[in-house]
Design brief:
4-stranded mixed β-sheet, 14 strands
Length: 680
Amino acid sequence: MKKLLSPAAMLLLLVTIAFSCKEQSAATTAGTKKFLDSSTMDPAVKPGDNFFNYVNGGWVKRTTIPPTESSAGAVLDMYNRTKEHLHAILDSAAKGGFANGSIEQKVGDFYASGMDSATIDQLGYTPIKPTLQQIDAIKDPAGIMQFVAQQTTEGKDIVIAAGIGPDDKNSTVNIAFLQQTGLGLPDKDYYFNTDPATAGIVKAYQQYITKLFTLTGDDSVSAQKKMMAVYNLEKQMATSHRSNVELRDPQKNYNKMSVAQLNKSMPVIGWSSLFSAIGFKVDSVNVQQPVYYTKINQLLSSVPVDSWKAYLRFHVLDGAANALSSDFVNASFAFSSTLTGRKQLNPRWERMYESTDANLGDPLGELYVKKYFGADAKDRMLELVNNLQTAFEARIKKLDWMSDSTKKVSIDKLHAIIKKIGYPDKWRDYSKVTIDRHKYFENLVACAKDEYQYQLNKLGKPVDKTEWAMTAPTINAYYNPSFNEIVFPAGILQPPYFDPTADDAINYGGIGMVIGHEMTHGFDDQGSQYDKNGNLKTWWSPADYEKFKGKTKMVVDQYNKFTVLDTLHVNGALTTGENIADIGGINIAYDAFKMTKQGQDTTRIDGLTPDQRFFLSFAQGWRSKFKDESVRRRIKGDPHSPAIHRVNGPLMHCPPFYTAFNIQPGDSMYVEEKYRIHIW
């Protein structure tokens, strides 16, 4: 199985990092490091009208997004810096000469195998032919599910998406769970919306399906017929999918069912045989979206086997496309560009470093940390986390809408949060994975099978809360409600968010806000449903929870008003949790900053007060610009608001910001005090 999210989905700072920008966020003048870049600003904009544009507007006006990217921005500097570091590590390891079985050998040979484009192009789609032959031999629904089971053990989520993770209601034990899957488009809405932008994406997707069939031997008529079979089957599957907003409800995603019950209610799937084939020795499983699997059971009987075979063939080819010859890679990119706006494929080395990180994440991360992440950064970061925790506790104690009993439980949960910084205390063992520097496709299969067995070995066993869900070089952060943990990989602990040599205003406005954001996720509309041990359990008084839901609705209503493109608005319901975390994050970070010596001082640096530097650091960290195609896709499926609203939205509800920049009635960002949102 792929490394699926646990039943309690991770709550991330960023959904995806696909950034590239050469411009640095810090300038150097006369040998002195400066952490704020005034050249990015637009002084024609009043801070109180649009703080994001005031801080970043000059940069936005003059920046062109590279053709290989869907965006550009400050965080992208981090990606480029990290990318170059990893490139150096991989090039060195790929030269060889390391002991067989060492992490350098595995990482270097994996990367070298992926860089051997001549051999990969010569092979065409030969590596996948045996799998396609298996599909050709399928004769009935039982054969379909037998094939699906075999693909599952190789890490491919075709028809079923099976995973292992903590039981949401007994977080000390790992159980099996199933999620909805099956679609080739990002979510169900693409199959039913008829607006021009969506119609264009659907057309490109259908062309992509057709192209993969023609690349593997079908004539145009046959390929077109198979494409329609695939698309129509997916459209029927899509009718059973929950929307992205509905998927945010952890209670509705908890549907523990016995195998006997599944066999009785969905007999065509053949659950007992399926579970046996994938190694699930279980009496029950959490079927997170049961309606999807009820639909699959029905479609196995109502849809002709030949249509299913076309569907399986396409999804096998789609899953393998980027590991095959250039014609498959280019076909895949042509479709993805309609979703992202990217016009040019990234260099091969960049794609191969991403593949190495995805398949050998811990070995690569270990090499990265040894060279680029110091102990001083980890110690400084822990100090910030502890200060944010203290500030958060103080804010909880002062809440005027929460009872003392619920405050006590909230504080207990806050102090129970596990803190992970930089990299794991123990690195994962990849000794069972054999890597051949001449066989890229086979290396991918070997890693996928090892990952499957690694996850499968957790089934029924105690949860290991020392595990990480991200690799050390990842430029992101997350809160995991099942573990009640906040995690900050080494990759994000660099400018513009964090620098051990920076003044406190810079670090608290940057990484401090990220820390506060992740802590607040434990108390947002989803995280608030889990107790301090990570169990899906009510810990609120009924009256307090009703007040909380009322405040949450204020967040939804506020963000629904933000316009993104033309008449396209932020989806307040989809982005609720992230917006709550953003609002809480900046306020908690500011309170923690005021606990520092600089925060209590008034000494100016470059003419700026400490408070002004704090807010400028926060806003410059979100400097970004996205292509319209990417914006439209993100609005449909990204639980985060666009960057401009991640800056302006929270600041509208942050009283110290009003003081620092003299925000007055009549300014566009001014909100009357009685209407300001104050949850945490």
